[in-house]
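User: Here's a chain of 393 residues. Predict its fold as tokens.
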Amino acid sequence: MILSSAVGAEDTALLVDTIRAAVGRADPADGRSERVYRDGPLDHDLWSVLGREIGVGALAVPETHGGLGTSYATVAAVLETLGAELTRVPVLGSVVAATALARCAEHPLARDLLEEIASGTRIVATVVPGDDLDTPGVGTFRAVDGGEGVTLTGRAEFVLDAAVADTVLVHAVDRYGSLGFYAVDGTHLTVESMQTTDATRGLARVHAENVPATLLTDRPDPGRVRDQALVALACDSLGVARACLDAAVAYAKERVQFGRVIGEFQAIKHMLAEVAVAVELADSSVAHAIWAVEEGTDRDLAEAAAIAALACGDAADLATATNVQVHGGIGFTWEHTAHLYYRRALGSSVLWGSADDHAQRLYLLATDSARSDDAPNPDRLREPASALFAPEA
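Assistant: Prediction complete.
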């Protein structure tokens, strides 16, 4: 688990234990598969406890707007815990929305949304921007400023929590090609729930046709919104990977075959060792990403987010597949939770970009950095030629 090494680590550990206890009462592992397919991707009872009583939505909200203003290490620890438990609550989406709204908190509506996210009374979804929004003038949604206000037209797919959201946040461009960050009331949108591999996470198609919207800021930073969303998703995937590693190790210690526990077989040892290495690498990548969120530059965050997305996605893929394999026949049954973890890993691996997308971003960042390092020093070029051959003193 990612815990801050600074003051507050004990409080974070206590919060994590409280969340685990609440999940254990409201959504225990026994019977979880049945509840997932019966009740859908939102556990209303658990969200009432976590969102309103414990206040997990307030973690990423600044203290000045009704939140707790905790460190991102605490936010990461909570996301990891909720990922490990496959909780069906809109915390991941709330963290993404809160971090985006905090950058335009001077707007009255943004302040109101932050306060309601913190209190757990409003679910806010975000259409996480992709690479096509890095250049102003290109985007899926279009904004028109008419005589009666701004309206939006456009569509998006795989929008997290959109089917249950009260408000949806969207980046859109106006007729001049300027990019803005808008809030849209969910009742004005056409939202269609999507049937995806991961039944524990609600994704939807969103369609807007000249719907009223509120401009929160005309100077958004879509790249940072996307990168912080990737970091939050990486924390969730790390929790999935660690939970599956622990489950596979525990089962390997108790399952007896041919008169020996299967954990003694070399093949099982090697499989679990590979997963353990992958989980440790993922843990390190998340620790670096936390630093980048709190203290790094935008470039630091872009690199750290891509690395974390790659490392945690790979760890979750390997851990969930290995967990099914170690459990053998029981791991393939519908009643066991192993397939739910496997499906969560599959969905997360492509939610806001594939592994190839993240690797390509890292390559571009690295080549851009190399070109910058190789660029001639202008101060050096302005020196007279005689200075290059001046005798040493």
